[in-house]
């Protein structure tokens, strides 16, 4: 299995023994939780955590569904929102007789005491070592973490705007001056955007947002000194053509929260709105958006099953083919949500056995 790495889960300095199920149950029955979470029949006896490992990848060595990790460790809601970390050098043991996992001490590491202690995982401080393993690769979604991406209708209307460019220029390049009017709110670093294509709900056909076009970054050089004088900015990085009428939004990074992959708290029935990049299909490690957001109970780290709706076809065995039947919906992969807006969320396509298509279904795992 390919390793994925980004959010983070770290565990207490001491070894932890976590109850799961009896040995006879581990391969066929679910551990505590709402969804089925079974161990693989060929799960290893132990795994030594090494640099480059990921939570998703390690989970896949023990579990049929890698995202079931929170249930295996019996994490509560608060611990999912503020997960613990696992560090290189630690050893994860699978006690087949007791039906338990144990996080133990590996050679050359001081992260754990070698004794077995029954404890609930404890949250470490935010300045914990940076070599802790993470959930999915940050490289896959880094560009999506600091950009607004979704612009609500009218949201840019009151944003600062470029009113003029350096003389002799039509579009701005690195180092060029841009003249801006509007309230800066005390910020000095901005990103330039323009509204992009509208995103329509596949079910209602209504516009639920606009995918913004990221143009680049600018830095304030001089505040205006008169009502009719614009602010002076310098372009620090250009991604797309930038010019008059484009809008600015203050740089306020929103890093991926350290959430463990988990099933949504409430039932979610969503559909794929778009594949990022303007294409019609997506594969593993690509970004897609769905027509559900925070108001629908979606949060960061939520895992959804990707399904293709079963087609309606004729039953050719009776009624001269006039009777219609609907084939079952087919599950073909998983989607990990990493960015949430009011009506739309972005997810990273994880394991899939088929291509992801617009209007495919994304549901709470069964």
Give a description of the structure:
By secondary structure, this protein is mainly β. It has three domains: 1-141, no CATH class; 150-250, no CATH class; 269-363, FlgT, C-terminal domain (Thrombin, subunit H), CATH 2.40.10.410. Helix content is 7%, strand content 31%. The chain contains four helices and 23 strands. It has helices spanning 55-62, 69-72, 77-81, 138-145, and strands at 16-19, 46-48, 91-95, 100-104, 150-151, 161-165, 177-181, 189-194, 198-200, 207-211, 213-222, 231-238, 247-250, 269-275, 281-282, 287-290, 303-308, 312-314, 324-326, 330-340, 345-352, 356-357, 361-363. The strands form six sheets. It has a six-stranded antiparallel β-sheet, with no helix packed on it. It has a six-stranded antiparallel β-barrel with strand order 14-16-21-20-17-23. It has a four-stranded antiparallel β-sheet with strand order 1-4-3-2, covered by helices on one side. Strand 3 and strand 4 form a beta hairpin. It is flat and about 75 Å long. The two termini are 22 Å apart. Mean pLDDT is 76; it is low at 1-34 and 107-129.
Order of neighbouring strands in the sheet with most strands: 6-7-12-11-8-13
> Count of helices?
4
Order of helices and strands: EEHHHEEHEEEEEEEEEEEEEEEEEEE
**Fraction of residues in helices?**
under 10%
Poorly predicted ranges = 1-34, 107-129
- The Rg value, from CA coordinates, equals 25 Å
Strand pairing plus helix content: what structural class?
Answer: mainly beta
